[in-house]
Amino acid sequence: MSAALPPANSHSDLGSHKVKSPDSLKRKLSKSSSKELDEEEVRSGIPAKRLALDPRSRQCPYLDTINRSVLDFDFEKLCSVSLSHINCYACLVCGKYFQGRGQKSHAYTHSVQEGHHVFLNLETHKFYCLPDNYEVVDSSLDDVIYVLNPVFTPAMIKQLNLSSKQCIAYDGKSYLAGIVGLNNIKANDYCNVIMHTLSHIAPIRDYFLREENYKGIKAAPGDRMIMVPHRFGELLRKLWNPRNFKTHVSPHEMLQAVVLCSKKRFQITKQGDPIDFMSWLLNALHLSLGGTRKLSSSIINKTFRGKMTVYSRMIPTSEVTESERLALEQSGAYEEKVEENQFLYLTCDLPPMPLYPDELKENIIPQVPLASILSKFNGVTEKEYKTYKDSTLKRFEITKLPPYIIVFIKRFTKNQFVYEKNHTIVNFPIKNVDFGELLSEEAKKSHKYTHYNLLSNIVHDGEPKSGVYLAHILHKGSGKWFELQDLHVMDRLPQMIPLSESYIQVYELNKSIPNKSYVPPTKAAGNGASATEEAMSVAAEEAGPAAAEIGPVAAEIGPVAAAAETA
């Protein structure tokens, strides 16, 4: 007779044996291997991450295929196939961007089809070899990381104004850090000259070269304006990078942020006005950095913002009847009004061009000294502003000079029929321009220094609708002047700069010439005033009314506050 089979629920050796799944075996092996790794880490004192590194990581055979001459990290970090910015890698052989590194990703497919093996993660700054998919660790790739994300220490920043050392690019060309060309994508030369100018203003440059200064700034959800300081800082670090692979930089990412945040007010494909762009950019940076109306609320206000007093009074027009004029006089409409304003730049008016040629049948290019057009702000000269219903006489008196003064020379006039340019040449000295002549005697006593040196001169060359913008920049390290027009960089003699048709000028405070009228502030007891009165005066100064709302929409704050161009 055959033996009876054991019941199904019996605990025989055969019934108790269970076949384990591959996933459970993998988990068990991974746990055991991690335990062994932890034990080995404790015994050797080496971090587990390094022990888990692939042995091929330090001996990658494809490092000699990297082509540094085609690497360009100035453009937006997007996959060239899917146009996605998530998990983007740069191929170090051809310079193109691809997404992912899995077996079905675009980077993996590119590595198999083209035979390109070394890739860089643009976010984590790690190198990988595909399709083998292991991390590459080699110190010879540090220069690629530095080009992608230059880092400046405080010691390096201090040497920028002192060093005249020539830097050598990967292609063998030499350049000065900070004096590199900016690519003109189509018609963005009006933006390039402003970028060049701001990159050589020491407080602005030193602040944005250190990403730690603005990295932790909090922004409201959905606020796109926070992109502006980050993109601007990236551009400045690339302009001052002493280890660039090429002698020019493309402002592509910065300009895309400008187009997006300005709601297409400033575009890459359409010529714009540099003064409008500078006003918008400085106000956008000021607001993004948490700035307020106080002069010390942001690095922008500390650098450029000054104060002035505006005196205005209405004058009767010929269309006003005698009864209306008497009524307005009794209501106080013709009395002089005083207003405390802040200014971002000074708008200077040029005298009109002559209508007829001279006796030699040749057109005259008139010339005017800088002191003549700046006399508008001496508190004495009056200017009439006409509207469709009344006229106002205004005079401006500067009460506080900023460390850097922006002078805007108004060359273009536009009406319903024509768009004209005034070709008048402004004669100005390069050094020791005394802005103290615009101050009152009381205001002059509170300024320790009133002399300024020219730092940047932006020029419009050509006709109103077809001209180009270029910038004359002083490189402090070498003491030389350079002309930068998009990608073209050339030396310039200081004597040739005043001969150009200046449009925007930036002056830097010269602390080598003291102001003889300066009176040092005395203590409250010594001056007979109480400490409470002194504190009240300081609070009143900080809480004074501003010229206009400071924000991204207030790009017109310059013309309103600086020259009261309300007409």
What do these coordinates show?
- The chain is elongated, with a radius of gyration of 33 Å.
- The chain has 18 helices and 25 strands.
- It is α+β, with helices and mostly antiparallel strands.
- Strand 17 (412-414) and strand 18 form a beta hairpin.
- The model is unreliable at 1-51 and 524-567 (pLDDT under 50).
Binned, the helix content reads 25-40%
Number of helices: 18
User: What is the CA-CA span between the terminal residues?
Assistant: 120 Å
Q: What characterizes the major β-sheet? A: 8 strands, mixed
Would you report the number of β strands? 25
Mean pLDDT: 83
How much of the residues is beta strand, in percent?
Answer: 15-25%
Radius of gyration: 33 Å
Low-confidence stretches: 1-51, 524-567
The dominant shape is elongated
What structural category arises from helix and sheet content? alpha+beta
